[in-house]
Amino acid sequence: MNNKFDASWDTILSDIKGKIQDAEFFKWIKDLKILSFESNVITLQADNKFIKNWVEDKYLNKLKSALKEFYHLECDIKITLKGAKQLKKEVQENIVSEVVKNNDNYDSYSIPLNKDYTFDTFVAGKSNSFAHSACLSAAKGFDKLNNPIYIYGDVGLGKTHLMHAVGNYIRLNFPKKKILCITGEHFRDEFVSSLTKKRMTEFKEKYCSLDVLLFDDVQIISRNHATTEEFFFLFSKLHSNEKQIILTSNSSPDESLNMDKRLKSRFSGGLIAHIGTPSVEEKVAILKSFSSQYGIFMTDEIIYYLAENIKSDSTRDLLGAAKTAFVQSKFHNVELTIDFLQNHIASMLVKRDKTLTPQNIIDIISEYFNIKLVDLKSPSRSQNIVIPRNLAIYLIYKNTPSSLKGIGDIFNRDHSTIKNSISKIEKDISNNNAYIVNTLNELSNKMKMFSV
Ligand code: ADP
Ligand code: MG
Questions:
Q1: Is 59:94 a contact under the CB 8 Å cutoff?
Q2: How many angstroms is it from 157 CA to the middle of ligand 1?
Q3: Which of 150, 193, 387, 389 has minimal Cβ neighbours within 10 Å of its Cβ?
């Protein structure tokens, strides 16, 4: 780092600060470090990829025009990442995006592959393991048994991510293969435009020459009979030529495409994979991967809290909440704490009773069972302690905004032990264990005193 650059950058910032009334702009820009200023290129450095993307999307043009307006400086601004590891990754990404760019040029209807959607950044878990392994093996090489692959599930669960991961993998490892990535909407528009411009021969030729067809949100075409017919024709052609086809949809093949018998048998020869909603553990893994991918630090407590308390089941919303929380904490220049989440992203979280604290519940349990807190926290496995302890854990989890990790800290246990205690009580409830159900009712009545 060169002090000279630092000093001149500081001067520039303090100069333009007086003239631009946008506090948020400065919050983000001021944390960037200057690395070099040469040949009309200013190179700045961001602490992590998230800040880099954020500044590039929102503030780069503003910064450029401020420099032009105030100093008549017409320069390009590059933002790099801190640390050699990330730089290496960035260089790698540039190579990938170059390959992607070259390939994408050949068709204006192709969707550019999102270079962040790779197998490396996709967290495989129970909810998506079938779809994930099918896509991975299709990316590595064509296999009749994996064709077509039809992935379906609710919005925001990673269908597009997986599909682009296949595309990115093939582009990098088999650059000669002709891939087309398209959405139902684009396909419909292209079909209609080819019809009106009398370009159907080119349209058909283009599709028939593909090695890999990645077709996102296929349900959209079912609304239009002629488009669906055309799709069936191209699909059959590619399928009999043993070309890889991957389709995604928000519903099952029967619901999305009113399939005729012939097509149905082709689908059943391939693979139909449903993506379900992620479990808390999967959400934790996704948040951890997200935080290391973007270099955003979130404590385990925050990660577990988000995973356990997010209202929506969609991974997109989960990541959206994490991003919003990070941006807000950065803007307010404060640490990300559970309190902060409750104050700033409350609408994205499940509502828990705020008036009841874990200590209130522990007090109720201690009094009811005549047990001391030290015993509840002790390693003792004796039943007259285990049951009150499990009940306390269960009630704290259900009635206060505490995370599994937070409860673990109270009881000197790790989060999986806490989870087992909760599951144990849930099982007793579903088995209609009279003692547990009655005790819970009595405890709930006592707890009402604390709620508003
Ligand atoms: P869909 O196409 O099913 O609506 P997307 O593929 O657009 O969902 O995913 C929404 C967001 O969630 C994207 O940012 C994606 O990267 C992320 N995401 C979803 N599932 C996973 C996963 N298993 N691992 C990592 N990121 C995921
Ligand atoms: Mg999608």
A1: no
A2: 5
A3: 193
Pocket test for ligand 1, best of 120, 150, 151, 157 (most atoms within 8 A of CB): 157
The domain that contains 227 carries what CATH number?
3.40.50.300
151 membership: H or E segment, kind and range: strand 149-152
Confirm whether 90 is domain-assigned: yes
Over residues 395-422, the pLDDT tens digits come to 999 888 888 989 999 999 998 899 999 9
Provide φ and ψ at 69, rounded to 5°: -65, -45
Atom of ligand 1 nearest to the CA of 124: 23
**Per-chain mean pLDDT for the chain:** 85
Atom of ligand 1 nearest to the CA of 123: 24
Do 342 and 407 share a domain, yes or no? no
Looking at this protein, which amino acid is placed at residue 97?
Answer: S
Residue nearest atom 11 in ligand 1 by C-alpha distance: 316
Domain residue limits at 244: 129-274
Ligand 1 atom with least separation from CA of 315: 12
Q: 197: Cβ–Cβ under 8 A, 6 or more apart, which residues?
A: none
The answer, yes or no, to whether any atom of ligand 1 lies below 6 A from the CB of 123, is yes
Same domain, 26 and 8: yes
Q: How confident is the model at residue 195 (pLDDT cuts 50, 70, 90)?
A: very high
pTM over 0.85: no
Amino acid identity for residue 429 in this structure? I
- The pLDDT tens digits for 237-275 are 999 999 999 999 998 887 777 666 666 777 777 899 999
Does the residue 207 lie in any domain?
yes
